[in-house]
């Protein structure tokens, strides 16, 4: 680890502010994050601006937003930090191809021109993209993940575990954070990777890598882990400490162009499922099996880290940390008192982690631990203000008709609409940082409705019917609905719906998607077929607006839970601006829209909703995975 250049200095508040910009780019989920004197000013993913899901291009728009939010120009930045080391990553690629030669020639020829012309000279490339002549600092990939998890956490010290596909060489690391220092102690190295194992099954079951993993996780409860023993017998060896060895005899990701090979396909009796084809019981069982294996691995890793560190709290990051089934089990059954996951745990979060690492560990500034944490509710993106003449002009041009309401009236109107069975799109305040919509760019509905899950999936999200929806629940009432052991403000932990909420309906003999036909609790729209739910707790500190909405809904209905899903359609990034929100509203069967303090009702709009043909043309703009 690089040692600090100073001995834990405290920033002089009378001195000019120090601004650090963190960047991630060129693989997936490009992003930018800005710190001023160590505090997070702004953070956003490039996809929200370009409308290209998972956009990996240089984050010009995200940088522009961060600079605007901080009120500065590029020249006023003191430091710029990239989230991984291009030279170490290039070393891994060269070593891997050398070991495989000549088998990896096609992959080599596809990858290396970009590296030799630009990526290897990343610092020059970034400076050129930003129009600057200056040094660009770099932070190791997994150290960026670790910093993104520990520094904003509410812990003075904690164990840290990072798990993803691959960074430079590391695929998982663990270490300890104390005060302003992080020390990573051990790693698992490429090609042995929990993330790549999960991605291999994502690919094999017909979903897109780096976005379809959520679908695989949602599909798992419909199946049985009948292939779990085959996976641990043939594909992976799991040691007691959670370290793994993948049998490369069955994979093709090291030097090939796909994740799996013909041996893998023969092992599971056939080729990969074709995307968009019917999902069968086989895919459900495969999903259940790899999820079961990953749950075990994550638990073993955490137990090993706990044994080695003796810490009571754990910070998580890396793409696998977004597997909220595994982390939920870890929260309930693991050795740590509390688990805290960076809301943008994937590569986007590396931009924030790189900046935080540089501030604390390279510059050496002290860390102030804040409660409930230092993420500001993860509302770090573009603002949709209550009132804006430019937004009004855009909405008028689009044919929008609305009422302007004060905050209490708006909260009541949303609560009443949900109570009356309507679906409400909500776009107000600062956009969320990370993949989860947390109440700033959300679609809301009544969790008590047995038809809401299928209606929102098929008529609003245009996605697979098996996908579950998440509950928003008042933090103070959460234990009345879920077997919850800690708060879950960022929708990153899966818990079981309390048994007292279960329905007595028998579903013996139902398999696969047929399980959807049976309501399982008195909040069926958010209860998955295994009685689980990806819980988001709402407190008055992080999200006072939504706390007020649900409080009013609870007063009218006696229920403190509503449905929350991201404000987008399948294949589209979460909406960013009022124009994004209004267009999505009019292209779907949402009943109401809130944009800032404006309340829209579908039947009052001057332009007709899209026809099916217009809707399909609109959807073709997005990458349907």
Please characterize this protein's 3D structure.
The structure is a single chain. Helix 15 (407-419) crosses helix 17. The strands form five sheets. Strands 14-23-22-15-17-21-18-20-19 form a nine-stranded mixed sheet, sandwiched between helices. A five-stranded mixed sheet has the order 3-2-1-4-5. With 625 residues, the chain is α/β, with parallel strands linked by helices. Strand 9 (236-238) and strand 10 (244-246) form a beta hairpin. Residues 1-7 have low confidence and may be disordered. The protein has three domains: 19-151 and 346-374, Nucleotidyltransferase, domain 5; 189-340, Nucleotidyltransferase, domain 5, CATH 3.30.420.40; 380-619, Carbamoyltransferase, C-terminal domain (DHBP synthase, Alpha-Beta Complex), CATH 3.90.870.
What is the H level of CATH, i.e. the homologous superfamily of the largest domain? Carbamoyltransferase, C-terminal domain
| Radius of gyration over all CA atoms, rounded | 24 Å
Strand content: 15-25%
The rough form would be described as globular
The CATH class of the largest domain, by name, is Alpha Beta
Identify low-pLDDT runs: 1-7
Largest sheet: 9 strands, mixed
CATH architecture of the largest domain: Alpha-Beta Complex
Main sheet: which strands, in order across?
14-23-22-15-17-21-18-20-19
User: Would you give the CATH topology of the largest domain?
Assistant: DHBP synthase
Counted up, domains total 3
Terminal CA distance:
39 Å
Number of DSSP strands? 23
Number of helices: 19
Average predicted local confidence, pLDDT: 91
User: What structural class should be given to the helix and strand makeup?
Assistant: alpha/beta
């Amino acid at each position: 680890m690089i040692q600090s250049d100073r001995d834990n200095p405290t920033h002089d508040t009378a001195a000019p502010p120090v601004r650090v910009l963190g960047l991630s780019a060129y693989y997936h989920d490009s992003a930018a994050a800005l710190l001023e004197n160590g505090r997070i000013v702004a953070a956003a993913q490039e996809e929200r601006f370009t409308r290209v899901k998972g956009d990996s291009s240089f984050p010009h728009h995200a940088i522009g937003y961060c600079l605007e939010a901080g009120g500065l120009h590029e020249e006023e930045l003191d430091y710029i930090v990239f989230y991984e080391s291009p030279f170490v990553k290039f070393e891994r690629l060269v070593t891997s191809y050398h070991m495989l030669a000549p088998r990896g020639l096609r992959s080599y020829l596809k990858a290396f021109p970009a590296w030799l012309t630009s990526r290897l000279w990343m610092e020059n490339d970034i400076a050129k993209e930003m129009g600057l002549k200056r040094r660009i600092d770099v932070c190791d990939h997994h150290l960026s993940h670790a910093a993104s998890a520990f520094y904003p956490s509410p812990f003075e010290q904690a164990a840290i575990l990072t798990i993803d596909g691959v960074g430079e060489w590391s695929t998982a690391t663990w270490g300890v954070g104390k005060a302003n220092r992080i020390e990573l102690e051990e790693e698992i190295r490429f090609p042995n990777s929990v993330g790549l194992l999960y991605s291999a099954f994502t690919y094999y079951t017909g979903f897109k890598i780096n976005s379809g993993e959520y679908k695989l996780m949602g599909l798992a409860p419909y199946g049985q882990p009948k292939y779990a023993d085959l996976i641990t017998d043939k594909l992976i060896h799991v040691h007691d400490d959670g370290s793994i060895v993948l049998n490369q005899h069955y994979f093709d990701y090291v030097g090939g162009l796909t994740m799996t090979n013909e041996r893998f396909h023969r092992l599971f009796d056939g080729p990969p499922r074709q995307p968009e084809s019917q999902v069968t019981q086989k895919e459900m069982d495969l999903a259940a099996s790899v999820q079961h294996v990953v749950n075990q691995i994550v638990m073993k890793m955490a137990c090993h880290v706990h044994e080695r560190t003796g810490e009571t709290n754990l910070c998580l990051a890396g793409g696998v940390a977004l597997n909220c089934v595994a982390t939920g089990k870890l929260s309930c059954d693991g050795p740590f008192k509390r688990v805290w996951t960076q809301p943008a745990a994937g590569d986007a979060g590396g931009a924030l982690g790189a900046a935080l690492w540089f501030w604390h560990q390279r510059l050496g500034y002290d860390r102030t631990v804040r409660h409930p944490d230092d993420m500001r509710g993860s509302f770090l993106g573009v603002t949709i203000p209550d009132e804006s003449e430019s937004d009004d002009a855009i909405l008028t041009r689009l044919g929008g008709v609305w009422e302007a309401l004060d905050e209490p009236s708006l909260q009541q109107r949303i609560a009443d609409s949900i109570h009356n069975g309507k679906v409400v799109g909500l776009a107000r305040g600062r956009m969320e940082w990370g993949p989860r919509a947390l109440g700033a760019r959300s679609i809301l509905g009544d969790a008590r409705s047995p038809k809401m899950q299928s209606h929102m999936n098929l008529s609003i999200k245009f996605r697979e019917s098996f996908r579950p929806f998440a509950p928003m629940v008042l933090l103070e009432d959460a234990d009345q609905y879920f077997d919850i052991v800690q708060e879950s403000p960022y929708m990153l932990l899966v818990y079981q719906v309390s048994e007292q909420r279960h329905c007595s309906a028998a579903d013996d003999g139902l398999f696969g998607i047929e399980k959807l036909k049976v309501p399982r609790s008195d909040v069926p729209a958010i209860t998955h077929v295994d009685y689980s739910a990806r819980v988001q707790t709402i407190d008055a500190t992080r999200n006072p607006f939504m706390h007020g909405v649900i409080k009013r809904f609870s007063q009218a209905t006696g229920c403190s839970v509503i449905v929350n899903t991201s404000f987008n359609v399948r294949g589209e990034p979460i909406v960013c601006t009022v124009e994004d929100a209004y267009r999505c509203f009019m292209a779907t069967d949402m009943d109401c829209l809130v944009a800032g303090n404006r309340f829209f009702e579908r039947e009052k709009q001057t332009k007709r909703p899209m026809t099916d043909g217009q809707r399909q043309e609109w959807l073709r703009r997005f990458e349907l995975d």
